[in-house]
Amino acid sequence: MRTISKHIVKPAEPTWNGLLPLTELDHISVITHSYIVYFYDKPIEHDSFVTSTNKIVNTLKNSLSRVLVPYYPLAGRLSWIGGGRFKLECNALGAELIEVESTMKIADFGDFYSSSDKFYNLLPEIDYCGRPIQGLPLLSVQITRFACGGLSVGLAMSHIVADGASAFRFIKNWARLTRGEPLEVVPLLDRRILLAEDADESSVREEVDDGGSMKFFSQVGLGKVGNNVTPIFKLLTKEKIERLKQVANNSNNDNNGHPYSRFEAITAYCVCKARQLKGEDITTLTIAIDARRRMDPPLPSSYFGNAVIDINVSSTAGEIMSKPLSYACSKIREATTKVNNKLVLELIDFLKSQQSLINHQFFEERGKQYSPPSPSIDHGKVEVISWLNLGCSGVDFGWGFETYMGPPMVHGRDGTFMITPFKLDGSMVVGLFLRNKSNVQFCELL
Asked: Can you tell which superkingdom this protein's organism belongs to (predicted)?
């Protein structure tokens, strides 16, 4: 790998400067950068888009500068204020764009998903432990040129600033500008509806960084593997997914006329088969729910920020395993339907009352997941992270859709399942982070 150039890309026009309030939901779940890589075969030359490497880099740099005008928070910087909390200063310091040359070929990645640990070098390094957070760009992009003529676009985006739905809407809007098309929708940056009732930005705590953010991220174990496990991967074809849905929907009629979705069917199957637990053991499933449409009034899909909450579904292992797949599906649906405006606002107020949010936070570094040190491991816990409905695939910067899109998966928390679309054919990949023999046994069952 050889770095060709590095650029700081600032908004193409003057943007609003000042302190943009962060909500409590911005401070939970992953609070470092999140990562994604898009692979593209050698672009085909055509009249409307000159596809030499230099032209591609310059075009992406120019369109990034323009898309940062409506998405100006991504050109700002965070500051650490203690207790696992931050503030966002919109100051137009810019995003980072890196051009890298590799001797690898796209063919070297094989099926992509089983070699996602190789994605590590295709992504920008964000050094939380070596630099104060106010010196880190909130968006960093790495364009890697391969020996075969193909390329990858790897992105690192602060999860504090944007959740998955927001991030992928940004990426697609950036691609639209690159193709010479207008934004599909202007982002909504007003976060007041998700601020706690007593939130007052005029009384925000003074900045206390002075190296405090580096100490914080070092103390929580960022960069240390700890109890994390390496994944194995299972490809689910569209046909396999349809069979699981049929089993879930035909085994009982408890779906009240609304068939269980592919997400509900796959997640239920993961819960049923993931752990080799005794019948009386409690198993708990954690899933993330987008609260945008569950607010009153609903948040528009263009809301740019974090609007995701985690919910838990618990049952005994015996009950889950002895009953039809539809039972686990019904438990998942029952829990998700309870997410409403009242529940979200109560969670926000609860989080606001907490002196520290560290127990509600996770960390990631180019496919390596971390969580705060814990004295014990909950062997009954299963966490499902799904990218199925985020609109993450089908990104065309002007030279066609990606060959493959996916997150790096190097090691993660025991009990985590990562579900991502595979190409554009309706299939998907499940990354399994299960300790000991559970990984292999689960793959044989799936």
From this structure: Eukaryota
Question: Which helix (H) or strand (E) covers residue 342, if one does?
Answer: helix 341-353
Task: Give how far the C-alpha of residue 409 lies from the chain's centroid of Cα atoms, to the nearest Å.
Answer: 12
CATH topology of domain 232-445: Chloramphenicol Acetyltransferase (3.30.559)
Nearest to 152 by CA among 395, 392, 367, 390: 395
Report residue 62 CA to chain centroid gap. 25
Q: Tokens 């992105």 map to which residue? A: 155
**Architecture of the structural domain at 2-219:** 2-Layer Sandwich (3.30)
pLDDT of residue 365: 84
Is residue 396 among the annotated active site residues? Answer: yes
Q: Catalytic pick from 26, 27, 33, 159?
A: 159
Cβ pair 129, 217 in contact under 8 A: yes
Q: What whole-number distance in Å separates Cα of residue 402 and Cα of residue 288?
A: 26
φ/ψ of 362, rounded to 5, equals: -130, 170
* pLDDT at residue 442 is higher than 80: no
- Give yes or no: 378 in active site: no
The letter for the amino acid at 104 is M
Check residue 97 and give left, alpha or beta (phi > 0: left; psi -120 to 50: alpha): beta
Query: pLDDT grade, residue 49 (50/70/90)?
Result: very low
Q: Where in the chain is the domain with CATH 3.30.559.10?
A: 2-219, 232-445
This prediction has a pTM of 0.91
Catalytic residue among 117, 254, 349, 396: 396
Pairing of β 18-20 and β 85-90: antiparallel
The letter for the amino acid at 201 is E
Whether the predicted pLDDT of 375 surpasses 60: no
